[in-house]
Write a structure and sequence with these properties.
Blueprint (H helix, E strand, L loop, with lengths): L2 E2 L5 E2 L2 H19 L6 H25 L9 H17 L6 H23 L6 H6 L3 H6 L11 E5 L11 E5 L9 E7 L6 H4 L4 H7 L2 E5 L12 H17 L2 E11 L1 H10 L8 E5 L15 E7 L7 H13 L3 E7 L11 H10 L7
Parallel strand pairs: 5-6, 5-7, 7-8, 8-9, 9-10
Antiparallel strand pairs: 1-2, 3-4, 4-6
Amino acid sequence: MNMQNTSGQTFTCGPLVRELLDMIGLFDRVQRRFHPAMIQRHRETLHAKARALEEVKKRLSSESPGLSDGPGCEAVLRASELVLQACGTFGASDDIQEGIFSAMRAMRKICRAREILFDLRYVSPEIDGFFRETPRYRQQGKSYSRREGDRIIHFGLKADPYARGNASLFVPEPTGRSNPLSLVIALHGGFGHGRDFIWTWIREARTRGLLLMSPTSLGKTWGIESPEADLECILGWLDKIAEDYPVDRSRTLLTGLSDGGTFALGCAMLSSSPFSAYAPVSCVLPPGDVSRAAGRRIRWVHGLYDWMFPVDRARRGCAFLKEAGAEVVCRIVDDLAHAYPGEENGPILAWFDSGPALPAP
């Protein structure tokens, strides 16, 4: 792949980009089926692919000694190094508990690589397509846009990009219309961060023109037993965003993984929770008065092979919510472990769009 970037320079890192995107895709597949008892097998799978990435990187560097000076190539090389570091970090311990945390640290490096590559979306159609629902995008009859319109903004009161209580926001490319935009609020799991979790929804947000906010919990995880403080923080970010962007408050989806999903269910039991619908993933029903969820729209997605929260807990939780009067869809994904299934975002949005909007506040 040789192409002109927006300044007219030629981008020449195509072979490395393709290998790098394949490697990140493999990390996604490993994460989807991750199981503590299979850490070493996952590690072997990643290392086999990492060797191919390293070989392409070395070959291009030897063929083009000034490769890092090319437009965008220095960034691609940095992203490649992060991905290779992630491979080295993943499962670098025989201890199961440490192995789990090493996998989490590896995935954070993958998220940093995504950040670097996202800045190159107007240089490379291949990278642009990686951050889109490509089949849907092509069905819409659109070509790749090189207009720098969409962006990610990181909010927070502290200089540390991983400070607790921060939030990350994706703003779609302007359409020229003044219509308010639906908002997806995506909540990370325990020990996670919104800056990382935003990538689970970026393709759908870019392709469909959605606002996407991924806040970070005040503590190491969400206040599941006492959700009021974290909810107040989220609503504060929502108010701030609405000052600058056309948020359709009648079309807001709260979704989350693991502790984030459990917290979302807890919010569904609070009268102060203003969201239109809730899409918890790989989680459990939190303590609380489930009768308060009456009338709420909930789509619960859970993996058949979830090793942290067995699937029967999800089935029972859905049954309790239905008995309480909530409108519940229970979606069990056959080949999913304890992870976020990105392919479910489309069905979640189809379900979300099919429901009524809430009355304007």
